[in-house]
Design brief:
Length: 81
C-alpha cells in the first residue's frame, strides 16, 4: 500500500512536494480505515453507535497516528527520501 501510494504521488508531483502529500494522505486513509473497522465491529456486536462514538474516533486516531504517520515515516526512511 505504501509503495503504490508513493508511486502514484511521485507520478503527478515532483519529489520535493511528494512527502508533504504522502504523509497526510496516509494519516487520513488509516484513520478512515480504523473508523470503518470499528464501526463494523460495533455493528457486528450490536453495540450502540452513539455510545461507542468516542471509542471509534479514538481508535481511528490511533490507527492514523501509528500506522499512517509512523508507518509512512519508516517507509520514507527505508526508501532514503
Amino acid at each position: 500500500m505504501y509503495k503504490g501510494l508513493w508511486k502514484l504521488i511521485t507520478k503527478y508531483t515532483d519529489s520535493s512536494h511528494a512527502v508533504s502529500i504522502f504523509l497526510p494522505v496516509l494519516i487520513v486513509l488509516w484513520t478512515l480505515a480504523g473508523v470503518a473497522v470499528g464501526s463494523a465491529v460495533c455493528l457486528a456486536t450490536g453495540a450502540d453507535m452513539v455510545t461507542a462514538l468516542a471509542d471509534l474516533i479514538c481508535a481511528g486516531g490511533y490507527a492514523g497516528l501509528i500506522l499512517g504517520l509512523f508507518g509512512g515515516c519508516f517507509y520514507l526512511y527505508r526508501l532514503g527520501v
